[in-house]
Amino acid sequence: MHDDADPRRNAPKPAENRPAARRWRRPALGAGxxxxxxxxxxxxxxAAADGEPHVxxxxxILGDVTTELVGDAGRxxxxxxxxxxxxxxxxxxxxxAELADADLLVSNGLGLEEGVEQHLDTAADAGAARFVAGDRxxxxxxxxxxxxxDPHFWTDPARMVDVVDALEERLSEIDGIDADAIAANADAYxxxxxxxxxxxxxxxxxxxAERRALxxxxxVFGYLAERFDFEVVGAAIPGGTTxxxxxxxxxxxLATAIRETGVPAIFAxxxxxxxxxxxxASEAGVEVEVIELFTESLxxxxxxxxxxxxxxxxxxxxxxxxxTP
Length: 325
Known about the structure:
The protein is α/β, with parallel strands linked by helices. It is 41% helix and 10% strand.
């Protein structure tokens, strides 16, 4: 287990240690190449060789949570690398083979993993077992200029408890896994999530109601807003995906909302450049700070948000500092 259970050990990294925004992408491979690689490598994984239970997770957030629950009871492979964009990351032929080899595939669902969903479907059609976290939570829809189900449920730690509950049950069903170890790990992680929820509630209680307004470069805070009573004013990128691009009219509309609400800060994601947010701040014609958050991806060990718990604590501090008078 990580040492996140002690909040004093998990204070967010100071501002000067924030990583520069960057995007990781693998070279795209055609579907034929991926399929050929998968067929060539199928059955050659470590899990098949030594019988150790093997779980594959798509996003690094779910990979971290899954690793906490599995512990020493099996092996976890995470497909999405640190600082990547979950909407656009892709996988190699060897990673496609991992999907067929795994005892369980853990994914976010709700349209998040746009670059790998077809490979998850192919693996499932071939008989791979799947756990889709978005199917196990109470889903909220996007508001404003985005439509459809919002996949960013991890911004609410209470919904992550629902994911842990369901994932514990599914992991315990894997042949040969130590179900008692899974249960103990899940209990410990639920306690850490409860502590995180309490810390977030306390920190956000200092923000006045009129300042509980969130502007980001991408719609990601719907669940946090619902859980902790914030208003999502808007996002620079329209829709629910980072693959879209804002128009001049989109930016002007959002700039108007910023001026009308008087928000003191707007937030840019670590997996996306903050150029749009800087332009937006300039267009709004007001003094507004642009603050970087870790929202859709974990970082490497030195990046300030290597685990889900540290990511959420860092974001909580930065949102509170940016919006509290």
